[in-house]
């Protein structure tokens, strides 16, 4: 909008029309354009969008992980892959009980699950 108005005033000036109010309007438009540009630069980047079925996919991943870890022929390989994803196990006392929090590359785990989930839906 501002760019179009600025261009129209500049064209009028090129055509020989020059008035003090045109100059004032042009300067006001240029100032507002700069203000808006500065505001846009300060807007934080949008948060990453999450898959709409993230909770369902995560639940399925955990179920599959549980199944795979219990298969004797894959237990060692699955445990090694899991160790690669988990960087830290943090004990957390809660109401007289001890819970754990896993820290690691959750994005990789979720991407693996989403890719495998999509492959299952796209398959035959």
Question: Quick summary of this structure?
Answer:
The protein is an alpha+beta fold. The chain folds into 2 domains: about 1-40; about 55-120, no CATH class. About 65% of the residues lie in helices and about 15% in strands.
Would you mind describing this structure in some detail?
It is a single chain. This protein is 65% helix and 14% strand. The chain is α+β, with helices and mostly antiparallel strands and 124 residues long. It folds into two domains: 2-42; 54-122, no CATH class. Strands 1-2 form a two-stranded antiparallel ribbon. Helix 1 runs antiparallel to helix 2 and helix 3 packs across helix 5 (106-122). The radius of gyration is 29 Å and the shape is rod-shaped.
Task: For the structure shown, list the relevant keywords.
2 domains, rod-shaped, 124 residues, 65% helix, 5 helices, disordered C terminus, alpha+beta
């Amino acid at each position: 909008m501002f760019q179009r108005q600025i261009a129209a005033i500049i064209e009028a000036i090129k055509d020989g029309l020059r008035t003090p109010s045109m100059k004032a309007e042009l300067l006001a438009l240029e100032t507002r354009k700069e203000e808006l540009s500065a505001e846009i630069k300060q807007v934080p980047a949008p948060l990453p969008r999450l898959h709409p079925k993230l909770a369902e996919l995560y639940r399925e991943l955990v179920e599959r992980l549980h199944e795979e870890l219990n298969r004797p022929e894959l237990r060692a390989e699955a445990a090694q892959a899991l160790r690669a994803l988990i960087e830290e196990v943090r004990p957390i006392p809660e109401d007289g009980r001890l819970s754990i929090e896993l820290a690691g590359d959750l994005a990789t785990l979720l991407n693996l699950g989403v890719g495998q989930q999509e492959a299952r839906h796209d398959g035959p």
